[in-house]
Amino acid sequence: MTKDITQKPLLELKKLTISYRSRSQTRPVLRNVDLSLRHGEILGLIGESGAGKSTVGNAIIGLLAPEFVQTSGSILFKGRALEAMDEQERDALRCRRIAAIFQDHTMSLDPLMSIGAQLTEAIRAACPDLSGKQTRGRSIELLTRVGIESPRERYHSYPHQLSGGQRQRVVIAIALSGTPDIIVADEPTSALDATIQKQILQLLRELVAETGVSIILVTHDMGVISEIADTVVVMRDGNVVEQGSTATLLDHPVEPYTRDLLAAVPRLRISSGKRADPAFAGANNASGDDDEEPAKRAAILVVSGVTKAFGRTSFGWSRKPRKLALQDISLELEPGAITGVVGESGSGKSTLGRIIAGLEIACEGEIVIDGAHVDVTRRRQPGGMLGRVQMIFQDPAMSLNPRLPIGDTLAESVRFGSAPSMDERLAINVIMDRLGLPLTFLTRYPHQLSGGQKQRVCIARALLAKPRIIIADEPTSALDVSVQAEIVELLGQAVSQDGISMLFISHDLALVQALCSSIYIFQNGSVVDGGSPEFIFGRSTNAYTRCLIDARPERFTI
Amino acid sequence: MSTDFIETLRRRMPTGSIPISKALLGTYILVALAAPIIAPQNPYDLLQIRGWEASAAPGTIGGDGYIYWLGTDGLGRDIVSTILYGLRISLLVSIVSTAIAALVGVTAGVVAAYFGGWVDALVMRIVDLQLSLPTILVALIAIVTLGPGIDRIILAIIIVQWATYARVTRAVALSEIGKSYLDAVRLLRLPKRRILLRHVMPNSIAPALTLIPIELGHAIALEATLSFLGLGVPIDKPSLGSTVAAGFQYLMTGQYWISLFPGLALLGLIAAINFVGEDTRSKLDPRSRSL
Q: CB-based contact (8 Å) between A394 and chain B?
């Protein structure tokens, strides 16, 4: 952060106002946005959904949809206004000097072209006078630079042969191909696991130090900002709320909105762990066979030896190697408590949730719910788990029937749940009130509600069916941070008031720590670590657990 | 009667053709409904037919002073009346068959998608088989097997058309079934019928609805084609298609009016339905709205 403050800004936005224009209305989406970016600076643009942060990014790259019109203000590149240039000059400038990285690494690469060919194409566009050999050399150089191992072999790989993190590295290499002055990175790590995110952020940091490129980092994640940004611009509803250097802004936020935003970020507490937990003592030395330990209370759910493999079709003629999605999983759920399952994408945590709910079958294993044995290898078992287990899903936009009013969805839950109530209306009203949902919502349709409201309705639906167990599969991942906190609180209340047990599936360690009384860590389909939060975050010596904890942004770790 | 021709025509028509088509289609429907009141003659009533005035040229003044504006056919039936009554048959056959075909197809598509496995395989292979054959061939096989009659024609058109609805609906239903609201419903152990009718079907039906107006035009053309080939409605209940067919033998002797005027009426009807149908489809389909 030892930047020359007197240096002239590389890019400036002056009172930039952009409006969305449709036939019926003109609505401003950005209002008088001022910001400036210096050489070699990482500027973080943070805000919740609808704040206009991506619009700022797109306005700079020149990727605004035609309905978005710059109504006033200007974008200055090295002191020259972009709108004063002719179109050719502006396009050339954007092509050579400004590059972009997008969120979805699966979409930003052409699936039918090898990564080498895509990189070569980008280099040719930027420096047409290089020879074929030089271009290739430069591609290999860039791949090496972004940390792709054995770049010569990888040069011929196709995007699907790479992991998410590697793909995002290739996207960064392509962005660097023209040696740009500015990279606009729109949520570059949001689709990646925490450990990979950390590596990518580190790479961006190194690139800035080495090449002097400036980065505009659009994100919703305070953690990302705290890790690498030099300056932060907080946005809300198309306005800049507050801006300043990262250290000052995070430590001494002035605006109430910034303070709320910071307060809503879940924090991981690392205690030195003085209290020994008898239930899980020694669970760490063996690999996950902690079901041997005597539980404190009779468990409401006992999962033992669940194994699931993918890669066979129903006709049995696809002889692909079987990929184990779950390998001999055993875990227990205490009644009236929240148990956390943590893992990165592909660790099998969601699959396990679906098997427990009875939505999928396993190859082997047994589940005992409330004393009743359930054969998880057979589909549609009469009197199975369906009904006793309810789920809350990740994406509230897809969890409600778009063509049914909220009231009808909830009524169905009462009528077909495990304890049909005589007075549907009353049951619904009580729960709506408890979850802070106005009764007027009953006649509304899902698309008329915000994401957080929809997720509350989903919680209401799950509770109204009077289940014994609720499985919450990443229930807050699709929500803004401020909403996330409310939902977590509601889930905690639901468990303590109704005596329900909950399996909370998440990738967010801080959330799991705040909610759960015991935690299982999943990696590649097996349980690698388990225990109380004190144990996991304090004393666990498991390498993977440590790795997950280290991937957390330090600022939000206490 | 080729719908390809109509489609080419539609693409080249100026935008003003939509209101004209709507007015035309409205007139057709009104006239068909009012046929028993406004038609000068009931062509189904043998007592009203004057055999001695057969094949009269347009404009001939009949025995009772009535002017045959469009002439009479080979049996002495007034062409104006035959067109009005024929319209009723054409519209009835096409509307009923399209409605039932849509219902059957949507149900089959939803059921195939929801149950998967062999049910899906069976339904979709039948659909594939049927869509791989020309529609007229499928219709001919159906009619030959079922025998003649209006109800058989309707059945034949349903057999031809359900497959398109089934395929379109299955694709949408599959993507809906992947969404978590259907998982939530399964967790509630709702009866299957309720899941299908209340949750899957309403969310998968939109693309099938956009097909209906177009298929309606196809149904009319198909009915006319079958009638023209002599496999359609019985001769004593002439539809537009069979009237055209009946007049065919008189063309050689210069009695053009028996085929020409019903043919023109048919052309106008199919064109109007296609224009209005395409317009409705593009309004219902959110994807084409943005284009």
A: yes
pLDDT tens digits along B261-272: 888 988 888 888
Residue A399 and residue A547 in one domain: no
pLDDT, block means (10 residues), chain A with 558 residues: 60 89 82 89 88 88 84 86 84 84 82 90 85 89 88 88 86 88 88 84 90 90 88 90 89 89 83 46 42 59 84 52 78 89 86 87 84 75 63 90 91 82 84 88 88 90 89 87 85 86 90 89 89 85 87 77
* Pair A85, A181 in one domain: yes
Place of tokens 């035959």: B82
pLDDT digits over A178-232, tens only?
888 999 998 888 878 888 888 889 999 998 998 889 999 999 888 888 888 999 9
Q: How many domains does chain A have?
A: 3
pLDDT tens digit sequence for A33-68: 998 898 889 999 998 887 888 889 888 888 888 888
Asked if residue A489 belongs to a domain, the reply is: no
Say yes or no: A209 and A298 in one domain: no
Interchain pair A402, B190: CB under 8 A: no
Contact status of B203 with chain A (Cβ, < 8 Å): yes
Across the A:B interface, residue pairs with CB atoms under 8 Å apart total: 60
CA dist B278 and B291 (Å) reads 15
In terms of domains, do A216 and A129 share one?
yes
Q: Please list every residue in chain A whose beta carbon sits closer than 8 Å to the beta carbon of residue B202.
A: 401, 403
Mutate to test the interface with A, among B181, B203, B205, B291 (most CBs of A within 10 A): B181
Contact A386 B198 (CB under 8 A): no
Assess if residue A132 is contained within a domain. Answer: yes
CA distance A359 to chain B (A): 7
Q: Which of A23, A395, A416, A464 to mutate to test the interface with B (most CBs of B within 10 A)?
A: A416
Domain that holds residue B66: 3-290
Same domain, A84 and A120: yes
* Overall residue count recorded for chain A in this entry: 558
pLDDT-based confidence at residue B15 (cuts at 50, 70, 90): low
- The per-residue pLDDT for A232 is 92
* The dihedral sign for the CA sequence A396, A402, A405, A411: negative
H-run or E-run covering B31 = helix B17-33
Burial A107-137 (b: 16+ CB within 10 A, else e): ebbeeeebbbebbbbbbeebeeeeeeeebbe
Contact status of B186 with chain A (Cβ, < 8 Å): yes
Q: For residue B11, name the pLDDT band (cuts at 50, 70, 90).
A: low
This model of the complex carries an ipTM of 0.75
Domain final position from A414, A441, A466: A466
pLDDT number for residue A281? 42
CATH number at residue B274: 1.10.3720.10
Q: Does B134 touch chain A (CB under 8 A)?
A: no
Q: Is residue A212 part of a domain?
A: yes
> Which residue in the set B179, B181, B189 is minimally distant from A387, CB to CB?
B189
Interface membership of B65 toward A (CB under 8 Å): no
Measured in angstroms, the CA of B123 and the nearest CA of chain A are apart by: 17
Beta-carbon separation of A404 and B198 below 8 A: yes
Q: Do A444 and A544 reside in the same domain of the chain?
A: no
CA distance B242 to chain A (A): 45
Collapsing DSSP states into helix, strand and coil, what is residue A185? Answer: strand
Nearest-by-Cβ selection for A403 from B179, B190, B203 = B203
- Predicted model pTM: 0.78
At residue A150's C-alpha, the angle toward residues A149 and A152, to 5°, is 135
Q: Given an 8 Å threshold on Cβ–Cβ distance, is A393 in contact with B186?
A: no
Chain B residues touching residue A394 (CB < 8 angstroms): 180
Given A466, A491, A515, the domain boundary residue is A466
Residue A340 forms part of a structural domain: yes
Q: The domain containing residue A240 runs over which residues?
A: 11-264
Q: What share of chain B is helix, strand, coil (3-state, %, to 5)?
A: 75, 0, 25
CATH number for the domain including A189? Answer: 3.40.50.300
DSSP secondary structure string for all residues of B225-261: HHHHTT-SS-TTS--HHHHHHHHHHHHTTT-THHHHH
